[in-house]
Please model this.
Amino acid sequence: MDNKITLYRPPHFCNEVILVDGTGRAGKSKLHQVLSAFDGVELPALSLLLPERLSFLYYHNLIDKDAAKALIRSELQFKLFNEMMCRNVNFKFGDYSGVFGNANPWRYLKRMFLKDANVALQRIKEERTILQIMVHDTLGFPNLFFDTYKDKVYFLEMVNHPIDLINSKYRKKHDERWDTPLSFPLTMKKNGKLVPWWNLYDNKNEYFTLSSMDRTIWSTYKKLEHIRKEYQKLSPEQKKQVLWIPLEKMMVDPWTYIAKIEKLINRKPTKYMKKNLKKYNFPDTMERIIKSRKVKEELIRNKASPPYTALMEEMITEYETTDWDALNQL
Model:
C-alpha cells in the first residue's frame, strides 16, 4: 500500500496575485505606493518567509512540489482573507506598507467593524480583490507561482540603474549583515561555514575574499544575471505576465507605467492616484537623478577594485542598452 501523503489546497478564491519583484534596493516600495491607488488592490504584504522562500526551495527541489503549491495557496488565501477582515493589518504611521500609507485608508478602517467572515468572503469573490506581495529575486525562481497560479499571477519586475542599486546596497550593508538578527535571507552551510543563499553562484570561492564594495558589485551582478537567464526560459505567454519597470522612468513619468499596469492587471486607477503620487514625490526629474548618480558613481569607483569596476560597467551597459518597453509584451 502506498502511504504517501499528497497535500492539496483548492483555489477557493481564484483571485489574481501581484508579485512586486526585483533584487534588493530596486525600488519596490515606490511601486507599492503606486499600486495602492488601483481599484481592488490590497495593501502590500511583506511576506518574505513563505512566498519568497518557497519559490527558492521549489526551484531547487528542496521541498515536495505538491506540498509547496498547497502551502503557497493556503498562505496567500489566508493573507487575503485577513486583509479583508482587517485582521493582522499594519496600522503603523509612516509605513508605506500600512493602512495610513495606503491611498484610501478609510476602506481598512471600515473593515474593522466587519464581523461576519462570510461577508468578507463574498466581497473577495465579488470585488475580485488582488493581493500584492513584495518578494526579492523571485523572477529567478518563478516556477512555483506559474505552476500554482497559471495566468493569474503578475510579475511587476522593478529594475534600477546599477550605480543607484550598488550604492544603495552598499550603504545598507546588504552583503555584510545577512547573518544578523535584523536580516532574513536564506542561509546555508558550506564547508562548515554559514553563507547567504547567493553563495550558490560562488564557483571560484571568491565572495569572502572581497572588500565590501567588491562583494556588493559581485552579488548584484550574479543575481541579475540569474534573473535574466530564467526570464529567457519563460514561454511567450508567461512573458506577457511580466512587466519590467525601470525605477527612474517610473519616477519621471509615472502615468505611462500606471497605464501599463492598468492594462496588465485589468484594474483602473482610483480617484486617489493623483493625491498619492504627490504624497510620495512623483514625478521626479531626470536632471536631479543624474546629478545624484554622479556622486554615487564617484564613491563606487573610489572603493571598487578594477575587475569589479569593469563588472559594474558591464551591468551599466546592459541596463542602458536594454529596451525595457520592448520586453513588455502587453
